[in-house]
Amino acid sequence: xxxxxxxxxxxxxxxxxxxxxxxxxxxxxxxxxxxxxxxxxxxxxxxxxxxxxxxxxxxxxxxxxxxxxxxxxxxxxxxxxxxxxxxxxxxxxxxxxxxxxxxxxxxxxxxxxxxxxxxxxxxxxxxxxxxxxxxxxxxxxxxxxxxxxxxxxxxxxxxxxxxxxxxxxxxxxxxxxxxxxxxxxxxxxxxxxxxxxxxxxxxxxxxxxxxxxxxxxxxxxxxxxxxxxxxxxxxxxxxxxxxxxxxxxxxxxxxxxxxxxxxxxxxxxxxxxxxxxxxxxxxxxxxxxxxxxxxxxxxxxxxxxxxxxxxxxxxxxxxxxxxxxxxxxxxxxxxxxxxxxxxxxxxxxxxxxxxxxxxxxxxxxxxxxxxxxxxxxxxxxxxxxxxxxxxxxxxxxxxxxxxxxxxxxxxxxxxxxxxxxxxxxxxxxxxxxxxxxxxxxxxxxxxxxxxxxxxxxxxxxxxxxxxxxxxxxxxxxxxxxxxxxxxxxxxxxxxx
Length: 496
Prior knowledge:
Elements lengths: L15 E3 L6 E3 L10 H34 L13 H24 L1 H11 L1 H24 L19 H14 L4 H32 L3 H17 L8 E2 L14 H7 L5 H17 L2 H16 L6 H8 L4 H34 L4 H27 L4 H12 L4 H8 L19 H34 L4 H17 L6
Antiparallel strand pairs: 1-2, 1-3
Helix pairs in contact: 1-2, 1-4, 1-6, 1-7, 2-16, 3-4, 3-8, 4-7, 5-16, 6-12, 6-15, 9-16, 10-16, 10-17, 11-12, 12-14, 13-14, 13-15, 13-17
């Protein structure tokens, strides 16, 4: 929390707004000042690029260690000889454990860290989030340089309790949602963020492939450098008003019902406010229409199904006997489609829809989000099943491109969160909850994280048995079924 936050408090005569970071107020009734989005995009670039470039070298580092254990430490074995079933099964198990423990620690600490974000400010928790990521990369370097047992790398996920992808995305998307009051502009910001992620997705594997071809440890050092740059970037994040408070007309003091003020004023242990926060999140869901519950289930299912993408590098390397560097270049080509969709096609679609619906009701925009979400889910089903049956590389490439066509899904599903049929203005603020937007986005990220928590071990297990039985497409068959379940759930959303 910054020491000069109190200087931002205006001398207003009306009720006040307070941000989740302590002491950031604006007068209610004044139009919210437009905050710059670029620091948020810069932070997203630095953190997600680090995550994107670490996957390939982590797989290759573990594969090389397992290969040396199998053939003997004194032998310099080529990567092609490491594609045998025994080594690839051990690789699948180790990476699966690493991914599972990372998302499990992150998920378990989502609510406690959310409370601490209200007490100490979002920036403090984002800085803390960088520590867990720096430790993972540093530990990978230690395992590699000291030739520790490959299973020792699993310990790199130990600090995920300081926050991982769920905590990071929850904070970032809440900030992005509060930069503007306009629903279409908010959807555009989400599109920019998703487009940036798609750019990272095709830059990351290519950068990782190029750097690890020079030296295996170079991507890890590059990731550490990017995270160090993220430290000052957090200081530039926009300060936005988030919490509506009712103040006494005489002394203009916000009520203590604010979760932010409770977090700052509480001298009790951390457990009681965490329990209270869980109750608040449950009450938020119960106070909303059934559509919100269905939307949260769809977030969970799509996150579970998309866990198969983390196996793509191993899948390509094993099934087609490719090096991890070559697989990285192929994955980069796949992500070009994501980039075109999310940086050009979707923003153009949103802009056109905005110009055509300015004089019409919000329901038309919501129906568009619902229709495009269903289309993305259908394409994802076709893409997953196509990948699973691709016996040759020439079949895999168009299948990957087809799968990529479903990547705009988060743009439209997140846009539905602000629909009156999902989050009515008069029902989204139960007792004790003065920041329903932040709560809803936290619940969304927790739903997605829970899908990842279950998806990581499930896909790793299916891949392990897929290698053993030579049914390499088994994880993608499972993803197809989960996407179909998501379509069934999504069909239950009624906008009225």
